[in-house]
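job 3f2a | input accepted
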Amino acid sequence: MVALVDNKIKNFLINNSVPILMATVILITLPLSGLSLSYIANEMILRISRNLFLVLSLLIPIVAGMGLNFGIVLGAMAGQLALIFISDWHIMGLQGVFLAMILSIPLSMLLGYLGGIVLNRAKGREMITSMMLGYFINGVYQLIVLYFMGRLIPIKNTNILLSSGRGVRNTVDLSEIAGSLDKTFSFQISKYNIPVLTIILIILLCLFVIWFRKTKLGQDMRAVGQDMEVSKSAGIEVNKIRVYSIVISTVLAGFGQIIYLQNFGTMNTYNSHEQIGMFSVAALLIGGASVAKASIPNAIGGVILFHMMFILAPTAGKELMGSAQIGEYFRVFVSYGIIALVLIMYEWRRKIEKDQEREKAMTLELNKKVSE
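job 3f2a | predicted structure (372 res):
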């Protein structure tokens, strides 16, 4: 009985080692930062509403066994192209935000479909392939935005074009839609601003993920994620299911990037999307997710822990070392380090599981020979 309890505690600590480590770091840096709890709470509400939709867009490919989809940057680029168009057309407020979402859907579906086809040809190496695919499509995106817009693609709003009349400026002002989601139906509780409409959209996405997993397509994705060969034998079109998962993830990422940028009110045309995949993946992993398993609580907990570090690290670094830049370095180090750590742990666990399966097979074979 004691051994069973010890094993459960050991497994719990191993499975939740990353969130426990991050929570410990946060508890240490919290008093060092000197920030008030009300300021931290306000910042957390803002950051959760801004980033959670993007992190949740990672869940469905994990269900399908495709790991961490760094390719959500494809959806982010589609969302940014849509925002450039609605800025050119001067469509303001919620109308502009929802039109941008609608415009991003066909672009995201096309990019997601292409991404799904590529990843089907790289089975077992989806994560690194999705990262490389993001870099490739980023080159295409920059070609379109820097050379085609204003020449081949008509842009009438000269405020978003470079002085040559060709190519979009480094920064696009989104003041016409800035905070449209966050301020609509928002209310204040004590000192805290609650962006109701944004939170409703996040809740709807959570409900969609829960519902989707129970559908026939969701069950097929789960079967494919568990074993592709068995799924093929059961008549499931594995490649098509995998493409569907990437398409859905890319479309959701496009929506998430629009929510993210309307919160800022400005868009860095050539850089806003670049770190989206890395930071979203890091947040999900910090919440206790793995390459093979992730849930909505992992996403929510990860965003809270990750962005608590974002808030506390620069101030704590300034207090300890006299430079806020130290906190920035630590933040980037943790982002990349957590991803590396979780991938190493995943491979380590998978090796242990394979060794255990091999031992079981050898034991069964030995017992069979003995009985004969």
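job 3f2a | The longest helix spans residues 324-371.
job 3f2a | closed
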